[in-house]
Amino acid sequence: MNVVRVEGLTKHFKKFHLGPLNFKVEKGTAVGLVGSNGSGKSTFFRLLMNLVHADGGTVEIFGKKMPSSEIEIKQSIGFAANMLEPFYQLSIKEISSHFSYWYPSWNQNKYEDLINRYKLDEGEKFGKCSTGMKKKVDFIFSLSHEPELLLLDEPTAGVDLGSQKKMKEDLIEFLEDGEKSLIMSTHLIDDLKQICDNIIILSPNGKVQDFLRKEEVEENWAKFWVSELTEELRCHPHVIKVNDSQHPSYLLTDQKHVVEKELREKGISVISIQRLPLDEIIEFQLDS
Ligand SMILES: Nc1ncnc2c1ncn2[C@@H]1O[C@H](COP(=O)(O)OP(=O)(O)OP(=O)(O)O)[C@@H](O)[C@H]1O
Q1: pTM of the predicted model, to two decimals?
Q2: Known InterPro entries for this protein (predicted)?
Q3: Considering only CA atoms, which residue is closest to atom 16 of ligand 1?
Q4: What is the CATH classification number for the domain harbouring 259?
Q5: Residue 186: CB within 6 Å of ligand 1?
Q6: Which of 170, 196, 213 is the last residue of a domain?
Q7: 68 pocket-lining for ligand 1 (C-beta < 6 Å)
Q8: Is 45 in contact with 82 (CB distance < 8 Å)?
């Protein structure tokens, strides 16, 4: 079952066009959204939450259409995206009383446990919190009403290392029963490695450059150092990069088994094979 389905979603600003975006998020999975600064990650979250109006396309969440089922859908979404600034004059506790009113599923015990876990002072005015503290408050509010889906825009950015570790533990626990889902943007490879199943890469011009299934890419992407690079290999649809400026030459593939078979059939010797770590794969995708 798909928890999120996006079709042809577009947003045009004067100097930036996002989309058309097409993808699905399966229930029970965690998706990492990566892309360079300004590639449209925050805009994408705002579109999902109908905080900016799309110029085209459709969004379905929990099988219901946005924006016609907006209120119902939002009751089951935990959203953290630096949206609490308008409450800068209120204390964390005062903001929590608004949240508990808005969300029938608000879990006061969970909220208090998280406040203690992240060592926050509930009496502090939100506007006086540091950047990292604000991120933690945002994170706590997103989790305290027992959502089915979390949408988190760079949740760990600017957060101290100890709290980053706790956030990851909390997200892994959130996903544990396989019923709940997560989309989070991040610039941190560890977030992707430790939490996400799939990765959406946004190109600088606001398009989905790739949708990577983490298990598949770790299995399929590899570098082969070979005795020779034939023309056929250079043009092979699963050879995505070659380098013959050094000896031995190497090729990069996103289909290890296909290329391995091809090399064997053509009698080309493989000097060595290296699996590609996820960070190199993402780096390659972001650079290409
Ligand atoms: N309200 C707006 N009006 C005009 N342009 C906007 C508006 N909001 C965002 N943009 C532009 O859309 C582009 C994408 O911005 P967005 O904040 O979504 O990127 P991002 O991927 O989240 O970046 P970062 O990684 O730096 O947080 C940027 O060029 C930005 O200037």
Answers
A1: 0.92
A2: AAA+_ATPase, ABC_transporter-like_ATP-bd, ABC_Transporter_VariousFunc
A3: 40
A4: 3.30.70
A5: no
A6: 213
A7: no
A8: no
